[in-house]
C-alpha cells in the first residue's frame, strides 16, 4: 500500500540521519487524498534512492538549523512585513518557500526577485538539470533526451541534484531557501515533507494561451544567462475573466545579439511540458492546500502589475532603496 511504502522510506531516511517526526495528520491526509500510486521500487533502486535522499536529509537538517552562519549584526532587511509565511515555526532559520506554476508562468522571475529581497538562496531545479545537461558528466546525454521531450527527469536524479546544491550552500553558510521547480511530483513533495517544514507554497497562475506565448518568446543571453521575453501578450477578457496584457521584457543592447532559445521552448515541447505539469504537478496544489500552505496567485499581467500585488499577497513591502535598486 502506498502509505505503508512512504512510511517505510521515511523511516529509512530517519534512521539514517534525520529527526523530523512523521506528522500523523499528514499521514491521514495522504491516505484520504487519493494521490497517484507510487511506483514499485526494487530493493537496489530503493537503497540507491535512500543514499541520495539521506544526503538531502543531512543537508536540509543543516539548512534548517544553520544558526552559526547568521551574522551577529545582520544588515537591515530589504523588506518589512507582517507575513504569516515568514519563519512559520522556527525563528532560528530563514524562509523555506516553494514556487509552483506551469512552464512559462514566470515563477523563475518572481522567485528570483523574492530570493534577493529576502536574502535567501534560490534553488531552481530546471537550472540544476540544465547545468548537469551542459556538463560532460555521465547523466548529460540521458538528461538531454528527457528534457528535450518535455518529460520530467527521475525523482532520484532531481533529489541528488538538489541535495548536492544544498550541501554546497550549507558549506557557504546559507540559511533557508526558495525552491523553484521542486517538488514537481507528489513523491518529491512527500520526501520534502518528510525531512523539513515548508512555510509557504506559492502557486502562480496564467491562462494557457499566455503560458504558451511566453514560453515561445523566451530568450536567454548566451553570455550573462539573463532571461528575456520577446512575446507581446494581449488576451482579451472572456466569460468574466479579466484580460491580460504583458509587455515584452527586452534585452539591453549588449545582450541583444547574443540571445538564444532553449531547445525545450518549441511549440510541441511546450505543449507537452504543460500536459506533463497538469498530470504530474497539479496534484501538488491539493497536497499543499490540504496542509494549509498554498497561496493561490493569479498573475494580473506582466512584472510591473504583478510584482507589487504578489508582495501584497505575501504581506511584504520593499524598502525604498531596494525598490530603486531593482527598478
Ligand atoms: N523537480 C523536477 N522533477 C523532474 N524534472 C525536473 C524537475 N525540475 C526540473 N526538471 C526538468 O528540467 C526541465 C526544465 O525545468 P524548468 O526550467 O523548471 O522548466 P519549466 O519552464 O518547465 O518550469 C523540466 O522540463 C524537467 O525535464
UniProtKB/TrEMBL annotation:
<dbReference type="GO" id="GO:0004017">
    <property type="term" value="F:AMP kinase activity"/>
</dbReference>
<dbReference type="GO" id="GO:0005524">
    <property type="term" value="F:ATP binding"/>
</dbReference>
<dbReference type="InterPro" id="IPR033690">
    <property type="entry name" value="Adenylat_kinase_CS"/>
</dbReference>
<comment type="similarity">
    <text>Belongs to the adenylate kinase family.</text>
</comment>
<dbReference type="InterPro" id="IPR006259">
    <property type="entry name" value="Adenyl_kin_sub"/>
</dbReference>
<dbReference type="InterPro" id="IPR000850">
    <property type="entry name" value="Adenylat/UMP-CMP_kin"/>
</dbReference>
<keyword id="KW-0808">Transferase</keyword>
<comment type="subunit">
    <text>Monomer.</text>
</comment>
<dbReference type="InterPro" id="IPR027417">
    <property type="entry name" value="P-loop_NTPase"/>
</dbReference>
<keyword id="KW-0547">Nucleotide-binding</keyword>
<protein>
    <recommendedName>
        <fullName>adenylate kinase</fullName>
        <ecNumber>2.7.4.3</ecNumber>
    </recommendedName>
</protein>
<dbReference type="Pfam" id="PF00406">
    <property type="entry name" value="ADK"/>
</dbReference>
<keyword id="KW-0418">Kinase</keyword>
Amino acid at each position: 500500500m502506498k502509505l505503508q511504502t512512504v512510511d517505510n522510506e521515511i523511516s529509512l531516511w530517519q534512521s539514517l540521519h534525520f529527526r523530523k517526526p512523521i506528522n500523523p495528520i499528514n499521514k491521514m491526509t495522504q491516505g484520504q487524498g487519493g494521490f497517484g500510486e507510487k511506483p514499485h521500487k526494487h530493493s537496489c533502486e530503493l537503497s540507491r534512492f535512500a543514499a541520495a535522499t539521506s544526503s538531502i536529509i543531512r543537508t536540509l537538517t543543516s539548512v534548517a538549523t544553520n544558526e552559526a552562519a547568521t551574522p551577529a549584526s545582520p544588515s537591515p532587511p530589504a523588506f518589512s512585513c507582517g507575513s504569516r509565511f515568514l519563519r512559520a515555526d522556527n525563528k532560528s532559520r530563514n524562509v523555506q518557500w516553494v514556487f509552483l506554476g506551469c512552464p512559462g508562468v514566470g515563477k523563475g522571475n518572481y522567485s528570483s526577485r523574492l530570493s534577493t529581497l529576502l536574502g535567501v538562496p534560490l534553488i531552481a531545479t530546471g537550472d540544476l538539470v540544465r547545468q548537469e545537461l551542459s556538463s560532460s558528466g555521465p547523466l548529460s546525454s540521458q538528461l538531454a533526451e528527457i528534457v528535450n521531450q518535455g518529460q520530467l527527469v527521475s525523482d532520484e536524479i532531481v533529489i541528488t541534484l538538489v541535495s548536492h546544491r544544498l550541501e554546497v550552500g550549507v558549506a557557504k553558510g546559507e540559511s533557508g531557501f526558495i525552491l523553484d521547480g521542486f517538488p514537481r511530483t507528489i513523491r518529491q513533495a512527500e520526501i520534502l515533507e518528510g525531512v523539513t517544514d515548508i512555510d509557504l507554497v506559492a502557486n502562480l497562475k496564467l491562462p494557457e494561451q499566455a503560458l504558451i506565448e511566453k514560453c515561445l518568446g523566451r530568450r536567454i543571453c548566451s553570455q550573462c544567462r539573463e532571461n528575456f521575453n520577446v512575446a507581446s501578450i494581449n488576451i482579451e477578457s472572456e466569460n468574466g475573466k479579466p484580460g491580460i496584457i504583458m509587455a515584452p521584457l527586452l534585452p539591453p543592447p549588449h545582450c541583444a545579439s547574443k540571445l538564444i532559445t532553449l531547445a525545450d521552448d518549441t511549440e510541441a515541447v511546450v505543449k507537452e511540458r504543460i500536459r506533463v505539469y497538469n498530470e504530474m504537478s497539479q496534484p501538488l496544489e491539493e497536497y499543499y492546500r490540504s496542509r494549509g500552505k498554498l497561496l493561490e496567485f493569479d498573475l494580473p499581467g506582466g512584472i510591473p502589475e504583478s510584482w507589487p500585488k504578489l508582495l501584497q499577497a505575501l504581506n511584504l513591502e520593499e524598502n525604498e532603496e531596494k525598490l530603486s535598486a531593482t527598478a
